[in-house]
């Protein structure tokens, strides 16, 4: 469960000290090494320009990093900048993931849940990803952390067969300990509990807690741990999903991780604004598929899928039945996929707007095409509203987001900053006040290219969409509109900081 980042830090410190020693004792050798470093940097830059398929913004950011930071820029590129699409997964991982997806597709095609008459964006998303629109659901919006945790804890407490849980961040704070204690109790009662988290998001997760969970019968796994210098290239490719599935019938996903800050217990912010979803019905089968897809990756064993897709198993782990009339579509993808399906689904969604596009995002660092699509909608007379934090949790992301405000306002979009004593972390888009998407995906290059993400597109969920619209309008009341005049009044140092952040935010 634990990373060994100290090894990487030690190697980097040794390299830095060695270079300083060479510079002092053997300055001529240092110059030779500098020439070699720059030559390697030029070769990497040429490879990026000529053969790499990432966006221009990311290419420029890496080329600047490589050449502005001697030696260190190349090291950073080797650790963080390699193209994730070139990573080759193991045979067991690929085979078992394929088996899971095939069984779910078979079950859904055979059911009456797969809806054929869908909005245009959902049709395009289905062609793109293979994920259909599923009806027969009850979908509830959970506004902020308290409502979300109460609902998750209540559902876990009623679990009879299994609890599957994955979070990007899971902190051993008050709410984290409460969830762990409940999982342990359910496991001792005979409920199957599978717990996983992104290894970088659980840096402070203690070995003692893992041992206590495993002793109770909980299976605990970590996503892409960085255990040696040789696995450091995985460091920048994180699993940002948040998925909870209970008894194959109830599912949760959205923007909320596990930590006290999501309950507005924080020294930095007075209030943490976030949104999550509770789903009941056949759509949960795709949440389960997403969890098990990641589980197969982490297990990396032959026949790891067998318990879940056997004739008996598939009807236990994919047991959701129709409970309502809401319809939705779950799209998930990641850096190892050939296509950026989540990003393309976002653009399909926005492009289908006829009247309005509302966006609430903590990180707004679009690539060139995504920015162009939004600006085009605004220029065409579509009402585009973008709600962003008034105070960021990470300086480079916050300043990078602010860099794109002016071009959006010039195109006619309305941009707002949420109240400065709070943090806006929800990931929501609403089109024409009729359709919405909510999930783990931010509107930034990291989510589009470097993270494993999941988003739920609500194609027929009037109550849930109305809830999101009401929340969005309530958020606007406590937000401040950004104007060209207010942008012009910013200090020069702020403008420079935003410009520089916009260059480097896409690679971090």
Automatic annotation (TrEMBL):
<keyword id="KW-1003">Cell membrane</keyword>
<dbReference type="InterPro" id="IPR022924">
    <property type="entry name" value="Cardiolipin_synthase"/>
</dbReference>
<protein>
    <recommendedName>
        <fullName>Cardiolipin synthase</fullName>
        <ecNumber>2.7.8.-</ecNumber>
    </recommendedName>
</protein>
<feature type="transmembrane region" description="Helical">
    <location>
        <begin position="31"/>
        <end position="51"/>
    </location>
</feature>
<feature type="transmembrane region" description="Helical">
    <location>
        <begin position="60"/>
        <end position="80"/>
    </location>
</feature>
<keyword id="KW-0812">Transmembrane</keyword>
<keyword id="KW-1133">Transmembrane helix</keyword>
<dbReference type="GO" id="GO:0032049">
    <property type="term" value="P:cardiolipin biosynthetic process"/>
</dbReference>
<feature type="domain" description="PLD phosphodiesterase">
    <location>
        <begin position="420"/>
        <end position="447"/>
    </location>
</feature>
<dbReference type="GO" id="GO:0008808">
    <property type="term" value="F:cardiolipin synthase activity"/>
</dbReference>
<feature type="domain" description="PLD phosphodiesterase">
    <location>
        <begin position="235"/>
        <end position="262"/>
    </location>
</feature>
<dbReference type="Pfam" id="PF13091">
    <property type="entry name" value="PLDc_2"/>
</dbReference>
<dbReference type="InterPro" id="IPR025202">
    <property type="entry name" value="PLD-like_dom"/>
</dbReference>
<dbReference type="InterPro" id="IPR001736">
    <property type="entry name" value="PLipase_D/transphosphatidylase"/>
</dbReference>
<keyword id="KW-0677">Repeat</keyword>
<keyword id="KW-0808">Transferase</keyword>
<keyword id="KW-0472">Membrane</keyword>
<dbReference type="GO" id="GO:0005886">
    <property type="term" value="C:plasma membrane"/>
</dbReference>
């Amino acid at each position: 469960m634990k990373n060994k980042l100290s090894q990487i830090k030690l190697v980097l410190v040794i390299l830095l000290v060695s270079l300083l020693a060479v510079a002092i004792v053997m300055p001529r050798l240092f110059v030779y090494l500098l020439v070699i470093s720059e030559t390697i940097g030029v070769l990497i830059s040429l490879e990026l320009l000529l053969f790499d398929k990432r966006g221009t913004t990311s290419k420029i950011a890496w080329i600047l990093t490589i050449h502005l930071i001697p030696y260190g820029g190349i090291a950073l590129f080797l650790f963080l900048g390699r193209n994730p699409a070139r990573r080759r997964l193991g045979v067991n991982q690929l085979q078992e993931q394929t088996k899971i997806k095939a069984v779910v597709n078979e079950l859904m095609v055979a059911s009456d849940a797969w809806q054929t008459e869908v909005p245009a964006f959902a049709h395009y998303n289905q062609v793109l990803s293979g994920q259909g629109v599923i009806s027969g659901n009850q979908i509830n919006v959970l506004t902020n952390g308290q409502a979300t945790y109460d609902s998750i804890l209540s559902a876990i407490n009623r679990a009879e067969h299994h609890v599957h849980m994955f979070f990007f961040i899971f902190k051993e704070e008050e709410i984290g300990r409460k969830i762990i204690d409940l999982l342990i109790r359910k496991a001792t009662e005979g409920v199957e509990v599978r717990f996983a988290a992104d290894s970088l998001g659980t840096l402070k997760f203690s070995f003692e807690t893992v041992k206590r969970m495993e002793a109770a019968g909980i299976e605990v796994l970590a996503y892409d741990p960085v255990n040696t210098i040789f696995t450091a290239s995985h460091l920048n490719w994180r699993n940002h999903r948040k998925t909870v599935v209970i008894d194959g019938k109830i599912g949760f996903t959205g923007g909320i991780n596990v930590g006290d800050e999501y309950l507005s217990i924080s020294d930095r912010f007075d209030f943490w604004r976030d949104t999550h979803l509770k789903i009941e019905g056949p759509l949960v089968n795709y949440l389960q598929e997403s969890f098990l897809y990641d589980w197969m990756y982490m297990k990396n064993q032959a026949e790891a899928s067998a318990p879940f897709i056997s004739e008996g198993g598939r009807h236990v782990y994919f047991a959701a039945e129709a409970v309502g009339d809401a319809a939705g579509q779950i799209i998930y993808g990641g850096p190892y996929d050939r296509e950026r399906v989540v990003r393309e689904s976002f653009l399909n969604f926005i492009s289908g707007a006829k009247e309005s596009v509302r966006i609430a995002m903590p990180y707004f660092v679009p690539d060139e095409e995504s920015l162009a699509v939004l600006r085009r909608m605004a220029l065409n007379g579509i009402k585009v509203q973008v709600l962003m934090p008034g105070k960021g949790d990470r300086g480079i992301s916050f300043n990078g987001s602010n860099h794109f405000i002016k071009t959006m306002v010039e195109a006619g979009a309305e941009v707002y900053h949420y109240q400065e004593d709070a943090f806006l972390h929800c990931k929501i888009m609403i089109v024409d006040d009729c359709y919405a998407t909510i999930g783990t995906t931010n509107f930034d290059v990291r989510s589009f290219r470097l993270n494993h993400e999941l988003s739920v597109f609500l194609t027929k969920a009037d109550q849930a969409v109305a809830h999101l619209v009401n929340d969005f309008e309530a958020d606007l009341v406590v937000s401040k509109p950004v104007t060209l005049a207010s942008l012009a009044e910013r200090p020069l140092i702020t403008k420079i900081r935003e410009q520089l952040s916009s260059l480097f935010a896409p690679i971090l």
